[in-house]
Here is the input.
Amino acid sequence: MSSFHKMSINCNFISETLDCMLEKSHKHVSCASCSARKDSLFGNYCDHELDELDESKSCNYYKKNQPLFIEGSFPRGVFCLNGGKVKVFTRGDEGKEQIIHIAKEGEIIGFRAMFSGEPYKVSASTLEECNICYIGKEDFLNMIESNAVLRNGIMKELSKELGERAVFITNMAQKSVRERLAFALLILHDVYKPEQINLTREDLANFVGTATETLIRLLKDFKEEGVIEIHTRKLEIVDANKLERIAGAR
Here is the structure.
């Protein structure tokens, strides 16, 4: 093959790769056709409200492990997760992550800090490739002021989160590592369904609050007990009832 032909093939490959990247990075999702919207705070929006929402937002493609915001920075807007999963976490004195929430499609991330007017107390980063819509602070606050349904939905969301966070903290503080892992797997089962749980062992350990080595040993125990199946990195819950008993949820 001549050098000219090789160069032509390489140029075509680079061009196709760039086109693919641009297609991903500029993926725009209409709010009216968004499959995740039904599970979001915008689920009850009517047609003209959806049009206004479309005009106020931008859509962006995020690679795996790409940050949305960092602890200590000031909020400038909110992120609505259209596709993929995002971890919300803090860092301890030694820099170790403690994951406090795994956000899924339909969730809005970052609006809590915006109300307080203070810097973020947590960080958020993608766990996989994500498509995320962004709404600026001023536009989002105007929506809340003019839309009673959205305002009430946010109040309910904050109240629900307060109760769930209290249960989460109590379980993580008072249960054994084995019980905490079972409790965490039940949460993740709900987040990832109908798909299998897809987290690195390190992220799962940071969610449970234990060492990675301890986590791996306990996962092996759970597999031998017939509670889970391990498919390389992915985890499948095969006996949720037994997992609930281990977690002390029943």
